[in-house]
Specification:
The protein is α+β, with helices and mostly antiparallel strands. Helices cover about 20% and strands about 30% of the residues.
Length: about 400
């Protein structure tokens, strides 16, 4: 796999992974073909093609030529990921001493290969002077007496500075808008602390704050989109995401790389794929436009986990997930559904005595249509003389009915 990176975002850790534009041609053509024909399986050669294209103003009439030209003139670069190596790299490390070939910014420097054409060679030569080298880490064992006299051991053990940097892509190569806000959360699993809790617009802001940690500490990073209201509530109430992870509502991000910047900050590169908002839109009929609106509660249950989402219908038909669509109809919008598994939908009157109604049950996500229309359903109400003074309240009946359904 590989990614396209703008020259201004190129860093020291990318240099040994730069590929010659000639050998990137096939992947570029495949990515352009996928971009133009949305039905094709997303290209996995260049993983961030759509994100890169959204941030690059290129003429779309001859996209193949435009992308390759940006690689040939050094505006952008094809960078391999993971364990892949370039077929014909653009630069190499030239050590000052034959024993040193560590890419660590000492006793040597990066050189451009002779096969690189002049325009790209000139751009690379300039970039190599601007990119800050990574600093090598050294271990120094100070005598115990000196440590005790100088600085407390507890402070020294916390003296490493860390940060997270997001590598942002979008699920199914969907376009990324200018405002994509998340709550970036980082847990220190070793110390059981929360060093990072901040809001980021991942369309532009990819970095966390710098925090301190001990050598060898392990981390877990999450990105909570604004629309993940249940997950946000779980985090606000519990200061952890154990229940949301158990419900498969969110998962920890993958840390793809760790390196040390020139200022000795240890950077953890984290892959973040902006999730697609999987929705179930239901159109529900309640009668003529002047009819009394039944105040129902709708519960969508994921049968393969504890995921559940509830929408209450109010008399104004207004809400984040509720709206009137036409005379006698309203729309329910269930959001952020799990990507697989079976679902069931139930409704129950908020102020009535009827038992919950099963609208559909154990339907696979793949079978759910984009829009579901449910015709008006008659809900029998008890006669007033049948209502005893010691009869349970409507809310008690509703809760008992839901408990019977969900256990």
């Amino acid at each position: 796999m590989a990614e396209l990176i703008h020259a201004k975002n190129l860093s020291w850790r990318h240099l040994h992974l730069l590929e010659d534009p000639f050998f990137a041609k096939a992947d570029v053509e495949s990515a352009v073909k996928t971009h133009k024909a949305r039905g094709i399986v997303p290209n996995r050669g260049i993983t961030n093609f759509q994100v890169w294209l959204d941030r690059t103003r290129l003429p779309l009439n001859d996209l193949n030529h435009a992308v390759l030209n940006s690689l040939k003139n050094g505006t952008s670069y094809y960078v391999h990921r993971d364990m892949d190596k370039p077929a014909r790299p653009l630069v190499y490390w030239k050590p000052a001493e034959s024993s040193n070939n560590s890419f660590l910014g000492v006793n040597g420097g990066w050189e451009v290969y002779d096969h690189v054409p002049a325009p790209l060679c000139n751009k690379l030569s300039i970039l190599l002077k601007q990119i800050e080298p990574a600093k090598p880490m050294s271990v120094y064992n100070a005598p115990e007496v000196e440590i005790a006299q100088a600085i407390p051991v507890s402070y020294i053990s916390q003296n490493e500075r860390h940060m997270f940097v997001l590598e942002v892509e979008s699920e199914n190569d969907a376009p990324i808008s200018d405002e994509v806000y998340i709550n970036l959360v980082g847990f220190n699993k070793t110390q059981n602390t929360l060093p990072v809790d901040q809001k980021n617009n991942v369309a532009h802001d990819f970095e966390s704050q710098i925090f301190r940690a001990k050598h060898g500490d392990s981390f877990e990073v999450f990105a909570i989109p604004d629309r993940f209201k249940t997950v946000k509530k779980d985090f606000q109430e519990n200061k952890n995401l154990k229940q949301s992870v158990l419900n498969k509502s969110i998962a920890a991000l993958r840390i793809t790389d760790t390196y040390t910047r020139a200022d000795n900050v240890i950077v953890h590169a984290v892959e973040y794929i902006i999730p697609e908002n999987r929705m179930l839109i239901i159109h529900r009929e309640f009668g003529a436009h002047n009819s009394k609106i039944p105040l129902d509660e709708y519960v969508l249950q994921h049968e393969d986990s504890d995921w559940i989402q509830t929408i209450e219908v109010n008399s104004s038909l207004k809400g984040d997930q509720l709206s009137r669509v036409k005379d006698g109809w309203y729309e329910l919008r269930f959001e952020n559904l799990p990507s697989s598994g079976k679902f069931s939908l139930y409704s129950t009157p908020i102020d009535g005595y009827a038992s919950p109604i099963v609208l559909f049950q154990n339907i696979d996500y793949a079978e759910l249509t984009t829009n579901v229309e449910l015709e008006e359903a008659e809900i029998a109400q008890p006669e007033e003389d049948e209502i005893m003074s010691d009869q349970p309240s409507p809310s008690q009946l509703r809760d008992e009915g839901l408990e019977a359904l969900f256990g």
